[in-house]
UniProtKB/TrEMBL annotation:
<feature type="domain" description="GGDEF">
    <location>
        <begin position="263"/>
        <end position="394"/>
    </location>
</feature>
<dbReference type="Pfam" id="PF00990">
    <property type="entry name" value="GGDEF"/>
</dbReference>
<dbReference type="InterPro" id="IPR029787">
    <property type="entry name" value="Nucleotide_cyclase"/>
</dbReference>
<dbReference type="InterPro" id="IPR035919">
    <property type="entry name" value="EAL_sf"/>
</dbReference>
<dbReference type="InterPro" id="IPR050706">
    <property type="entry name" value="Cyclic-di-GMP_PDE-like"/>
</dbReference>
<keyword id="KW-0812">Transmembrane</keyword>
<keyword id="KW-0472">Membrane</keyword>
<feature type="domain" description="EAL">
    <location>
        <begin position="407"/>
        <end position="647"/>
    </location>
</feature>
<feature type="transmembrane region" description="Helical">
    <location>
        <begin position="139"/>
        <end position="161"/>
    </location>
</feature>
<keyword id="KW-1133">Transmembrane helix</keyword>
<protein>
    <recommendedName>
        <fullName>Diguanylate phosphodiesterase</fullName>
    </recommendedName>
</protein>
<dbReference type="InterPro" id="IPR043128">
    <property type="entry name" value="Rev_trsase/Diguanyl_cyclase"/>
</dbReference>
<dbReference type="InterPro" id="IPR000160">
    <property type="entry name" value="GGDEF_dom"/>
</dbReference>
<dbReference type="Pfam" id="PF00563">
    <property type="entry name" value="EAL"/>
</dbReference>
<dbReference type="InterPro" id="IPR001633">
    <property type="entry name" value="EAL_dom"/>
</dbReference>
Length: 647
């Protein structure tokens, strides 16, 4: 299009040059014609008056003969003395263009003639109107004819250009179709063009399409690399830098479930047994450190197996794929993990670290079915001992066709704990922050196996809740705590006991608890029952009945893990708890979190208005304790204040 515009510009310039040249040529001819006309007029008048002498008759004849106004635009006759005899003016109006040319060339000038006797003098200016009209006509002819000669080629060239442009576009479109069908520009593309109407023009396009192909391939590689990088970031766990559940599913489907060649191996699931307790008692930062430590141990042990892959499935579970490792060898993997977990447990003063469930896999095994089996193995491992592992074999599943084999084993373990009362009680004090503040020591429980091994507390309580055995466990804890308080003469000290929401909402449990507390009223007044905020919200009426009963026997209530739900203070006015314990997530990094500081200050102010004391749990540093004190809370609990100790 730019070339076409340039061509049009050249045409216009050529036309203008042609018009200018033609105009100059016509003007020159006009000036020459005027000069010739003036010379002829002068010669004619000279001959006419040369043999004449001045008299009235001669003057009249001259006037009649020459001064008709058509030949001369001005004619003046003078006598021998120079006196004017007569003057005739008949000016003619020239066309505009002729007038302009005449003014430029100054073609028309006054002329003079004198006879031989010198008694007749004539002054005249010729009339060039007919020459001016001829000049104007010639100019218009030159202008319009040259314009036509210029416009017609321009119109034709424009039509030719658009036709050519369309042909080129169609040609390129055809070449692109061939290129797309072949998916690349190569010698095959040249051969395809040779056999078509695109032979001449298409061949010239092949090098360009080759460059385009390389460019697109490069860009496609860049896009794929960027997409892979984004995918890896999206599939990566932030804390451990391991692949997450999505990456595990993709890996399993690609390398195990849908693989063409035969394959086998072992799949291990590792569950962090203490994560929930650490988050609640030590804070989420310590929980993250604990998870990262477990991940490091798992990566270190699995790194000795060729092709092993480690993933973090959720907050507490890891998956380890051991390709081409039979279950017999996987048992050694479980033993090594248990040894390292036990070592870490002793260093960190934990009740347990993690349990491991192991199953075998083979080609085509659906992931959902495999996860169900390994979860069953995990339940078996949790019911054994601290940091235990369990291998689930196909023969085990055949001999125990029930899908709840792991649950049945848990039920057996929980029943044994209840019947043998194998519980170990520890306590952790809440430090009061004011002279008039009231605080207490929270009783925590550890469960033992027949071999006196500590079971993972969080897993034990979760399975008891799942198997509808939480009420029996709560009764066992309360009975054991009351007996310990009586035998150790601790009735002067205040103690807190955790009660599950399912127990608090159970009418039979509430009746049993009331009767049990009335047997030891002097101890009942020293007890504070802790129920989670979320649990109380599940059934407001049942929660109110439980709290009213607790208050009737002289005991008190703490709403623990406060701030996780969306409870209004109308809820607290109706239930009238005695204490609230802020969730440990609000204490985490409190010194740098202005939003949490503001929220806790607001909660303290509102709670104090209705006579409720506020505690902070999960305090892990001097800075956190200092901020809690400035926010006017009534007490603090955490590993910085005191670690759990035997009662």
């Amino acid at each position: 299009m730019a070339g076409f515009k340039k061509l049009i510009l050249i045409q216009l310039i050529s036309w203008l040059l042609c018009v200018v040249a033609g105009t100059y040529f016509i003007s020159a001819q006009f000036d020459s014609a005027v000069s010739d006309a003036q010379i002829n007029a002068q010669n004619t008048i000279t001959k006419y008056i040369d043999n004449s002498s001045f008299n009235d008759e001669a003057a009249q004849n001259l006037k009649n003969a020459l001064a008709d106004g058509k030949t001369f635009s001005r004619f003046t006759l003078r006598d021998f003395q120079g006196a004017e005899v007569f003057t005739i003016n008949s000016p003619a109006r020239l066309p505009v263009f002729a007038q302009f040319i005449e003014s430029v060339f100054n073609s028309v000038r006054p002329q003079f003639a004198v006879n031989t006797a010198a008694d007749i003098k004539v002054e005249f200016t010729i009339n060039i109107q007919h020459l001016g009209e001829q000049l104007q006509t010639s100019f218009f002819i030159v202008f319009f004819m040259s314009a036509i000669l210029v416009i017609i080629p321009v119109i034709l060239m424009k039509s030719i250009f658009y036709r050519l442009n369309r042909n080129i576009s169609m040609t390129i479109a055809d070449v692109i179709d061939i290129y797309i069908n072949q998916n690349q520009a190569s010698n095959d593309l040249k051969i395809a063009l040779d056999g078509s109407k695109l032979q001449k023009l298409g061949k010239d396009l092949v090098p360009s399409f080759n460059r385009l192909s390389y460019f697109l391939k490069s860009k496609n590689d860049d896009i794929q690399n960027a997409a892979l990088s984004i995918k890896q970031e999206a599939y990566k766990d932030v804390i451990t830098a391991l692949g997450n559940r999505n990456m595990f599913v993709e890996y399993y489907e690609k390398n195990i479930e849908n693989v063409e060649q035969s394959t086998f191996g072992s799949l291990a699931m590792i569950r962090c047994s203490e994560l929930q307790i650490i988050n609640q008692t030590r804070g989420y930062q310590k929980g993250d450190e604990y998870v990262k430590a477990v991940a490091d141990i798992v990566k270190h042990i699995s790194g000795t197996y060729t092709g092993s892959q480690v993933f973090r499935l959720n907050s507490s579970d890891f998956a380890v794929v051991l390709p081409h490792v039979p279950l017999k060898e996987a048992e050694r993997f479980g033993e090594n993990l248990q040894s390292r977990f036990t070592q870490y447990q002793q260093n960190q003063e934990l009740s347990s670290v993690a349990n491991t469930g192991i199953v075998g896999y083979e080609k085509g095994k659906p992931l959902g079915e495999l996860l169900s089996i390994v979860d069953n193995a995990m339940s078996m491992a949790q019911s054994k001992q601290v940091n235990a592992w369990h291998v689930q074999r196909e023969t085990d599943l055949i001999n125990n066709v029930s899908a709840g084999f792991g649950n049945q084993n848990w039920r057996k373990v929980i029943n044994e704990v209840i019947e043998s009362k194998r519980v170990h009680l520890v306590m952790q004090n809440i430090m009061p922050l004011g002279k008039n503040s009231k605080a207490y020591a929270e009783i925590q429980v550890r469960f033992k196996t027949e071999e006196n091994q500590t079971l993972p507390t969080a897993s034990f309580l979760a399975m008891a809740e799942k198997l509808d055995m939480a009420i029996d466990i709560d009764k066992l804890i309360i009975d054991s705590s009351l007996e310990k308080i009586k035998t150790r003469n601790l009735s002067e000290k205040n103690f807190g006991l955790n009660v599950t929401a399912s127990s608090a909402h159970n009418d039979q449990f509430v009746i049993w608890l009331e009767r049990r507390l009335l047997k030891d009223t002097h101890i009942a007044s020293k007890l504070i029952f802790e129920v989670s905020e979320f649990g109380l919200q599940q059934n407001i009426k049942a929660s109110k009945r439980f709290i009213d009963m607790v208050h009737r026997v002289g005991a008190r209530i703490t709403v623990e893990r406060f701030g996780v739900g969306l409870t209004s203070f109308k809820f607290f006015r109706d239930l009238k708890p005695d204490f609230i314990k802020m969730d440990a997530s609000y204490t985490r990094g409190l010194e740098d979190d202005k939003n949490n500081q503001y929220f806790m200050r607001l909660m303290v102010d509102l709670a104090h208005r209705i006579g409720v004391s506020v505690f902070a749990e999960g305090v892990e540093s001097q800075e956190e304790k200092h901020i809690v004190e400035t926010l006017l809370l009534d007490g603090v609990q955490g590993y910085y204040i005191e670690k759990p100790k035997d009662m």
